[in-house]
Amino acid sequence: MENLNINDNNHIKNSGRVWSGVLIVIVGLAFLLNNMGLDIPRWIFSWSNFLIVLGVFIGVRRNFRGIGWLILILIGAYNTLNDIPGIDFDFSKYALGVGLVIVGGFLIFRPKNSFKDGGLFGTRKKDKYKSVDPNAFQFDKTANNNDVIDVMAVFGGNSQTVYSKNFKGGDITAVFGGTDIVMTQADFSDTVSLDVTAVFGGIKLIVPQNWAIKSNVTAMFGSVEDKRTHTMPVSEMQKTLVLDGTALFGGIEIKSF
After folding, report:
1. Rounded to two decimals, what is the model's pTM?
2. Taking each helix axis from N to C terminus, what angle separates 95-109 and 68-83, rounded to the nearest 10 degrees?
3. Where are the domains of the chain?
4. Smallest Cα–Cα separation from 216: which of 7, 14, 54?
5. In the prediction, which pLDDT does 14 show?
């Protein structure tokens, strides 16, 4: 039973990398096919379709929590339909109304506990972000909403300060926007994980000097930079912040005050 729990946890940790790889493969295939001279309609390789793929990617990674992924899909779908030749229909007359109906319906019929219990797929967020301890893969009943962060910045900015002394990690997404997360007042034991996604955007993490940073982020035309001035040996750092996720045409920056 213990081995089964460990395998399930590893599957959750690796799922982010899998979907990041899928997105990179799709983008790569689009560039490849676009330059092979095949008779493929130009609208297929448009930025609007990239927004649709990006919206699905973010929705899947976040278990369809929030609404940013839906906005990306709606914007992309509207522009794609306008770019398809042969469709003699003025979508601009109905786009706003249809979009508002879809967004409103999503807010009405969304499961009440979708944010607390991990979204539409039923995976508890608190299980995903608990500290990495092979002997403690059971649900941590001491965790609460203040111990887990869930931040999304789409076409805008966001900032948040974490005060939890029982920090369990969380999920940070910046798409065509930026977010600053201040964690100098936060604390945790041993190791904690953050799932970060920066696509044409930036994420700034302000952390204490005595935190070690381990990055497992997949960077494609992006970067992950630790700009802290280290004043203590790495061997003396007792806490480790693990970063998993994707930086696609975006950046993740780690700093201290």
Report:
1. 0.62
2. 150
3. 2-109, 133-255
4. 14
5. 53
